[in-house]
Amino acid sequence: MERSYYVATANAFAPASKLEGEISADVVVIGGGYTGIHAALNAVERGFSVVLLEAGKIGWGASGRNGGQMIPGWRKGAVELIATFGEARAKVMCDLGLEARALTLARISKHKIQCDLRENGHLTLASKPADLNWMRAEVEALSKTMGYSGSRVVSAEEARAVADAPGFHGGLRDGGGGHLHPLNYAHGLAGAARDAGVQLYEGSRVLRVDTSEGVVAKTEAGVVRARYGVMACDALLGDLDARLAVRIMPVANYLVATAPLTDLPVRDDLAVSDSRFVVNYFRMSADGRLIFGGGERYTPHPPSDIAAFGRKHMGGVFPQLANAAIDYAWGGLVSISMSRLPHVGRFGDLFFAHGYSGQGVLLPALTGKVLAEAMAGTAERFDVLASIAPPEFPGGAALRSPLYVLGMLWYALRDRL
């Protein structure tokens, strides 16, 4: 993380102290990424006293390392949501996905978070000519069933005009998309939470959670006793709760940032990804660098040379940048679920949300609010999200990794073919 472009360009953020001793609160939040901070901020605004415990530094997990792409909705598109849940329930899901975007933008505006926000849209490039068929069906479903008119299919010429990458056949452009500086967004949210009264603690890894009476979170040097708890650890959950671990899979994710470019490969300040199963995604930074993520990596161990790893895949999409200078290269873990929909729920008084499967910039604003609503006694929207819980990975936590690797290798082969 310390080698990332985001750390190099981070706004000032006062570090929090380590938890020492025993304290009490209405709510204890475990995890200092987007989900945890949104849950804490919403809870304190509802009058709860809140303590947030972060094992490392605030925002230094997936929340501060990701591609910064704001993609409205869920990993499943409108067509797949309708096929899975039916039109009425899919419409509810779509509306919730759009609410996540609105809540994110409202937080940035309300707290004056300086995070290089761009709202010019998101473009999904068609890697195969046949991809345009499902893209047209998606636009039709969004318009007719979901009442959303913000997306359209673009030609190969229009796509090439904004993303100077050969080999694509058009794309799906969503005007509701955008991008931001993810670490500055996390720090801005955390600053707002601290100002609102949330007690933040860094370097305070939770070793055990006891739910026999309320929620008790124990760290190496302290204890928090609370009425409610929120588990917001995502890919860094580890072995803290086996019931959650079987529903998500940590996946390695690597990015590079070039030196500032004079001839921009992405124009109109769009966030861009492609339609491959193993997705490439990219955008321009505020100071004119291409931030590129892509390629497949099936172990948690990083490549020996992240810059070289990223360059290979970047050059495959942008041949003109094959020899471009790379100033920053970094990576980390994100989580996916079997259904690619998030896992939201509760075990008694312990709430949780994770497994955003690539949609983790916008959706935590929604899940954090819904968790706070449920703690305050209004569970209707929480029940909607809990009802889409993904299945466990086959073989549980022990076998999920090798089975996932086999599946990814198969889809990666299909991409190449």
Automatic annotation (TrEMBL):
Residue ranges occupied by any Rhodanese domain in the UniProt entry: 27-69
TM stretches of this protein: none
Chain segments annotated as coiled-coil in the UniProt record: none
Tagged with keyword Cell cycle: no
Gene3D superfamilies xrefs: D-Amino Acid Oxidase, subunit A, domain 2 (3.30.9.10), FAD/NAD(P)-binding domain (3.50.50.60)
UniProt keyword annotation of Oxidoreductase present: yes
UniProt KW keywords: Oxidoreductase
Superkingdom in the source lineage: Bacteria
GO MF annotation list: oxidoreductase activity
GO cellular component, one term: cytoplasm
The protein, known as: Rhodanese domain-containing protein
Species annotation: Candidatus Viadribacter manganicus
